[in-house]
Amino acid sequence: MVEVNLWSGLRAFAHGKDCVEVDAKNVGEVLSGLVEKYPGLEHVIEAGVSVAVDGKVIASGLTEPVKPDSEVYLMQQLKGG
Amino acid sequence: MAFDETKTEDFKVVGQRVKRPDGVDKVTGKAKFGADAVAPGMLFAAVVRSPHAHAGIVKIDTSKAEALGGVKGVVTRADFATGLTGGDLDVLENVMAGEKALYDGHAVAAVAATSQLIARDAAKLIEVEYEVLPHVTDVDMAMASDAPVIREGAADQSVPEGMHANVVRYHESGHGDIEAGFAEADLVVEDSFKTEATHQGYIEPHACLAQLGGDNKGELWCCTQGHWNVQKLCAAMLGLETSQLRVTASEIGGGFGGKTAVFIEPVALALSRKTNRPVKLVMSRSEVFRATGPTASTSMDIKIGMKKDGTITAGQGTFRLQGGAFPGAPMEFTAMCAFAPYNLQNVKQVGYDVMANRPKQAAYRAPGSPMAAFAVESVIDELCKKLGLDPIEVRLKNASKQGTKASFGPTWDRIGLVETLEAAQSHPHYSAPLKEGQGRGISCGFWFNHGGETSVTLALSEDGTAQLSVGTPDIGGSRASMAQMAAEELGIPYENIRTTIADTATLGYNEVSHGSRVTYASGLATIKAARSAVKILCARAAAKWGIDEDAVVWENGCAKPSGPNAGEFDPLPIDKLTRSMGRTGGPIVGHFEATPEGAGVSFATHIVDAEVDKETGQTKVVRYTVVQDAGKAINPAYVEGQFQGGAAQGIGWALNEEYIYGEDGRLQNSVFLDYRIPVASDLPMIDTVIVEVPNPGHPYGVRGVGETSICPPLAAIANAVSNAAGVRLKELPMSPPRILAALENQAKNG
């Protein structure tokens, strides 16, 4: 299991939690695991998110690996000018 | 060199100040920009725009325009695709109004004719019947309970119940116990700030030439930061198959984020399809101001607690951003960047995306971050003054560094904020004496940077030179830096590489030139494409020598045996290998397609001296120093140019630039005479210091530099001006009337 930290605005969609656990080996599985456990997060994830894994911000790569002891943060999707 | 190896020293071409390959063409007028494109039988287009800030479109009568000699076609919303949803629908609504005009300047129809004059005359003959509706342009007023609703149902599920319908997205993040943090502080300062919308101010207006037949196969030439994105969006707006529209990017006269969107391109394509002729459409400056994206305007509340020794105990920010009549104001970036430079145990940031009757905001260099820095760094400056602390010492004491927790959550990897602060502290500027009437300000700033989908090919020519094709429009000298990286890997002179910005039919998808990603992502792709070409070169040499491929190395542009055990052979230079490539296995082409995910974040520290004339309220920036972490400067001259450009734009944003709306909701200053960007005489020489803390996610350590440079200026200048004027300036721009008002208010209230 991997601990996933949510930004606090998402608590409303994750049963009041801002840190949840999902079974995942990569970023794609983190996201699908979140939607499976907390369907309320689907609209957020579909709208686009980034995932920080051990301090590295993954903007879109679903195959990036995640370990059980990885620090994982869901982040707003990054763009720029 | 192995495919994934990193290189941090012994560079031969990287780090040199080579001349940009497009420089001569640009200064001699040979370079072709968006408006330079022509085609036989070309028509000219003009756009009809709403004179109202908010109005229902009751009826559009095009008959008089169509009857005018020379007019070949008119389009309205009915000529675009139907059934779009989400972001695509928002883009189409912005490109061509549907049932309502949502801001002054919103396009409602367009006409193509045999000359520009006829097109303009015809546009005046298109009769639009409006039902004028109440409007709102200020962010705070747009959130008030009595504000007119811009678009019903635009809010997403993040918005808490009870908010006005104009609040369309909500963000909240942070950690720790914010109230306990404030209780620990010796001093808490709380204040509110506002910034006006500013335009990216690129010199070249949007321009395009479109050709689309009834068979829905088309060509488009345009000035853009990302032609694959243009292809994708235009295909959606016109109901085309994406691959049937080929898009070529022209040279670009500035973008700064503003050319990451489409405005006129789908309109020109629709007109071309209707008339079966090529159609050219060029915006006037006034159209650029009225109808293309400025940045968001903001209203912000900041509260920070500090101990007497300078330790920040808690930070809290509320950020309300107005992004025009569509969702998308970058409030989440404002929130996440606000306290990013500081290692805070207790932090909370809240953001609101608010709609108003203004043009759809577009990205502008580090979208959302400069405004956050203005508010937060102003309060930190105030705390330092009240506690008698040195502003750089306080920032060093609280600085984010590797291993500390970012205000938005993750633990930082290797970052260079401390190095920029130390370089600023030891710079002669920081200790130079100030003259009477002058003040000094400093600020830190942060931006994430980005990787993104990237595709590059590098084809070797028979004579050993190389053609490098990249898909990211060159908005800051990237053709030079790409060629430097390719030359470094191939071991050939910089001049032997020609870099081309390929069209959408030539390479795989390339994300827009945004997010400070080009030198990082296209650079990484270039290095890896060159390494894949080198691998083929080594294999060809191995075959010639009859040894194993792994027994060949590439050094200084030659294949060589890796050691005495590999055999004794004379080095084979690149041109000897390429001359025979047709007979030794075929053309040698290296390529790389991926989505690099290791873009390193970047921090900067700026020092500014400003002089304020208390009689007139006029401000002059007298000295400016930019210190920024570039990871590795591929071409220091262009890195310095990015640093200086960010500072120059920041000076304009801080002191003069603003969108001014009248009571009628119409933009009052839609030309450069009234919208005052800085000119050369407004600016001091902007000194630069490049700090290099390598990014572990790039083979040479590159971090993006294009955006971070605009994060600190608003705050650093505000701190300098406030210190010079003796009164805290809380609203941008700090134009003479605002400075006089602040001085008057202070005199009145003490």
Automatic annotation (TrEMBL), chain A:
- InterPro entries reported in the protein's UniProt record: Beta-grasp_dom_sf, Mopterin_synth/thiamin_S_b, ThiS/MoaD-like
A Pfam family of this chain: ThiS
Family annotation (SUPFAM superfamilies): MoaD/ThiS
Task: Tell me the superkingdom of the source.
Answer: Bacteria
Which CDD domains does the record associate with it?
Ubl_MoaD_like (cd17040)
Q: What is this protein called?
A: MoaD/ThiS family protein
What organism is listed for this UniProt entry? Neptunicoccus cionae
Traced from the root, the source organism's taxonomic lineage reads: Bacteria, Pseudomonadati, Pseudomonadota, Alphaproteobacteria, Rhodobacterales
TrEMBL record, chain B:
MF-aspect GO terms: iron ion binding; oxidoreductase activity
Decide whether keyword ATP-binding is in the record: no
Keywords per UniProt: Molybdenum, Oxidoreductase
Which SUPFAM superfamilies does the record cross-reference, listed alphabetically? CO dehydrogenase molybdoprotein N-domain-like, Molybdenum cofactor-binding domain
Q: By its UniProt entry, which Pfam families does this protein fall under?
A: Ald_Xan_dh_C, MoCoBD_1, MoCoBD_2
InterPro entries membership: Ald_Oxase/Xan_DH_a/b, Ald_Oxase/Xan_DH_a/b_sf, Ald_Oxase/xanthine_DH-like, AldOxase/xan_DH_MoCoBD1, AldOxase/xan_DH_MoCoBD2, AldOxase/xan_DH_Mopterin-bd_sf
Q: Which PANTHER family match?
A: ALDEHYDE OXIDASE 1-RELATED, XANTHINE DEHYDROGENASE
Every Aldehyde oxidase/xanthine dehydrogenase a/b hammerhead domain range: 28-134
The name on file for this protein is Oxidoreductase
Species the sequence originates in: Neptunicoccus cionae
